Amino acid sequence: MNTYDSLLAAITPSQGTTREVFDPATGALIGTAPVEGLDALDAAIDRAEAAQPAWAALPDAERQAILHRAADAIEASSEALAELLSREQGKPLNGPNARFEVGGCVAWTRAAADTPLPVEVIVDDESGYAEMHYRPLGVVGAISPWNWPMMISIWQIAPSLRMGNTVVIKPAETTSLSVLALVAVMNQVLPEGVLNIVAGPGRTVGDALTRSPKISKIMFTGSTPVGKRIIEASAANVARLTLELGGNDAGIVLPDVDPAAIAEDLFWGAFINTGQTCAALKRLYVHDSVYDAVVDELAKFAAQVPMGVGLDEQNVLGPLQNRAQFDEVDRLVEAAKASGARVVLGGDPDREAVGNFYPTTLIADIDPHNDLVVEEQFGPALPIIRYSDLDEVVRLANELEFGLGSSVWSSDRARALEVAARMQAGTTWINSHGGLHPMIPFGGAKQSGYGREFGVAGLKAVAEPHVISG
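Predicted structure:
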């Protein structure tokens, strides 16, 4: 078990270029993080390449057992990891936040270890016999984001290791300490060279990782523009890709709902992680007949959800992770206010405060093509759009280039399923939004990316299909 101080000491660089890391809630100095370059990346890729054959040669059951030991190690150090995550990313310890995220790392590592992937018999009749095997790809390059830095890293690491690959991961520059700590804990039990991390700039280290001919697979979670650059950079090597890109998820509330009954789930669908989630509810369309009641009930619930410094146990909403994101949310909300949209709650940040706190904000009576609606705000500001015609609102929900998640809210399940079938998204939830399960495949449609993670589909995504026929 690692304490917070011992964990931070273990990942604090003793030499080389570093940068100071500050708490986005308080501005306090947390520590120093390495700023590594291409030499460090090349060395990490070489270590991963050298370690991969022996790791792949282990029986699947042994890799499964090692992954369980890695999950045990994360669990044993969970409180120290959660505290570091809260200080660096800003999310509170409680609620669906830091402790929740570390617990998710444990759960997803165990799920990746335990998911069965037997040989598939495809044909076995008078015409012949064929079976499908899944082989390791080699070295997986993983690039993780700053909003869920530990858990999304695990989504990339755990299935890759289970299938016999080795991994080189590059964390987001603003949350590198969190991922360095996670990797350090896992490497207490993993064989040397199996899991490697390089903390460096995306424009140099990240770009070189995606271009390396020694990388067989790239997994990336982040913005659509960066995803497009990765597609171009990896093309020369025909590297396999899993891209979970931007989202601007729509939710449609049908007229038969009970507004008070859905308010809490609507809130967490939109404001989990203070809105900093790719598959959060980012634009809510509500039928005219229940519009005012839904807005009122949502505002009533939202007003009593505490926001503040993450280490204070009572808080469940925190700051935005970085000032650039604060400025982006502020810009979009101010544009909405200038257009005449109605501020129901929030919208009045203290721009001179030390922490990156943007208040929980609800914007009603907004034009469906306002920037706050059509751009991904990635923060605690939800536009609520009034509609009366179902065909028109489905068209509005589908007209953007994004298609990560969506939701339909109704007391009539059959009706909700009919509407859900018309939504263009990787996932459509009924009467909830954004919930993930380690056995249910997850990924985007349209420009929200391609490839699927989790469960059997996630294991297959980090493996090479091999048909043996005869």
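Summary: The chain has two domains: 4-245+445-469, 249-430.
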